[in-house]
Amino acid sequence: MEKPSRPSAPKFFLDTKVVPLAVNMTGGMEVALSRASARTGVRPSVILAGAGGLACLAVALLLRSRRTVDER
Questions:
Q1: Within 10 Å of residue 68's Cβ, how many Cβ atoms?
Q2: Closest alpha carbon to 47 in 58, 60, 37
Q3: DSSP state at residue 17
Q4: What is the reported pTM?
Q5: Which of 3, 6, 39, 43 is the most exposed place for a label (fewest CB within 10 A)?
Q6: In 3-state terms, what secondary structure has residue 5?
């Protein structure tokens, strides 16, 4: 069994576009979290937990509002 000379097109796309974008976004979020922590004096884990809680609340309220609109 011979190995292909190049990676497949989907793997090449993931390796050149998706992974670098995800890494850059994650790094940017880490820097923003660090700066917010330094400015407020609150631990990064507390800020992250609060942001996660707000995101979950927003999704729950959005789903709830869509459910009530569908029932009308």
A1: 9
A2: 37
A3: I
A4: 0.68
A5: 3
A6: coil
